[in-house]
Amino acid sequence: MPVSVYSSRGGYTSPRAFVHGLPATVVQHAELLDRRLGSDVAPATGTPGQWRDRAVRVAALYDIHANAPALEAVLAELEVEMPDVIVVGGDVASGPLPRETLDLLAALPGDVRFVRGNSDRMLLQFLEGTRVPDPAPAPDDAWVVDQLRPRDGDLLRTFAGNIKLVIDDIGATLFCHGSPSSDEKIITALTPERRLADSVEGFGACVVCGHTHVQFDRTAGGTRIVNAGSVGMPYEDRGPGAYWVLLGPDVELRRTRYDIDGAAKRIRGSSWPGAGDFAAENVLTVPSGREAARYFEELAAEQEGL
């Protein structure tokens, strides 16, 4: 785990984060990535030729992190785009507006599929008593758990480890949170090609992931790997917005602009302990995608002992 201290702004920070010029919220996210909760995601089974579910166009919405205003803006855009399937890629409720966010997701019509993220799994562990949130170093976790209603836990329990679809003109596509084998594994635009190819080999023509909140579209070992970015907590050099991906017939990395001033006001009205920093550092402005990718790639190397 990276060395960190509590900053005067009320969030975790670290010497490495200062080097990369990243705000406290990115380091808090990195602390979560580095908790190593013990992933229970089973590797995807069946060869791509055996995958039966087909779709023409798929919208992939990842890492919403309870930013309900950002989600509302993307859902309004989807009413125009009308995809066949919506895949929600995990980490939906850990953030300032969990009830509003979960209500929006529960009310979605049509074919909606959910992938479980590491934060979703952690919340379920808290709800089921297999893990206890520690309010001292992580007051955000305890607050979110207190907000969740029985129906919210029921929704989270429906999330799957991976989703498999055959998308027209793209082919067999696996949707996961971190990697096909783990909801915690870090994959970035900077991950060395050999290591990346080993992570996705045998999982179809395309793998869609999230977890690190930075969009990318690259190929390794003949597999296309797409990070959908983050709807609610992006790290992007294009600036504020809600980031997601539309698949079919090609891959479109999308950015939806929304009323960030109004969103920041709503978020600051939340009693979530990190609301002020979140509004300032992930809504009104967003961290650098390039620097975040470098930071997370260094963390991945530490995790894997490289």
Which SSEs are present, and which pair or pack?
Layout: E1 5-6, E2 12-13, H1 15-20, H2 24-33, E3 54-55, E4 58-61, H3 68-81, E5 85-88, H4 98-106, E6 111-114, H5 118-127, H6 139-147, H7 150-157, E7 163-167, E8 171-175, H8 193-200, E9 206-209, E10 216-220, E11 223-227, E12 242-247, E13 251-256, H9 260-268, H10 275-284, H11 289-303
Parallel strand pairs: 3-7, 4-5, 5-6, 8-9, 9-11
Antiparallel strand pairs: 1-2, 4-12, 7-8, 10-11, 12-13
Helix pairs in contact: 9-10
Sheet having the most strands: 6 strands, mixed
Tell me what portion of residues adopts beta-strand conformation.
Answer: 15-25%
Query: How far apart lie the N and C ends?
Result: 14 Å
pLDDT below 50 for ≥5 consecutive residues: which ranges?
A: 1-19
User: What is the count of helical runs?
Assistant: 11
User: What share of the residues lie within helices?
Assistant: 25-40%
**Strand line-up in the sheet with most strands:** 3-7-8-9-11-10
Shape: globular
By DSSP, the count of extended strands is: 13
Considering the chains and any ligands shown, give keywords for the structure:
alpha/beta; 306 residues; 5-stranded mixed sheet; 13 strands; disordered N terminus; 6-stranded mixed sheet
Kindly describe this structure.
This protein has 306 residues and is α/β, with parallel strands linked by helices. The protein is built from 11 helices and 13 strands. It has helices spanning 15-20, 24-33, 68-81, 98-106, 118-127, 139-147, 150-157, 193-200, 260-268, 275-284, 289-303; strands at 5-6, 12-13, 54-55, 58-61, 85-88, 111-114, 163-167, 171-175, 206-209, 216-220, 223-227, 242-247, 251-256. Strands 3-7-8-9-11-10 form a 6-stranded mixed beta sheet. Strands 6-5-4-12-13 form a 5-stranded mixed beta sheet. A two-stranded antiparallel sheet has the order 1-2. A hairpin with a 3-residue loop joins strand 12 (242-247) and strand 13 (251-256). Helix 9 runs antiparallel to helix 10 (275-284). The longest helix is centred in the C-terminal third of the chain and has 15 residues, at 289-303. The relative contact order is 0.19. Residues 1-19 have low confidence and may be disordered.
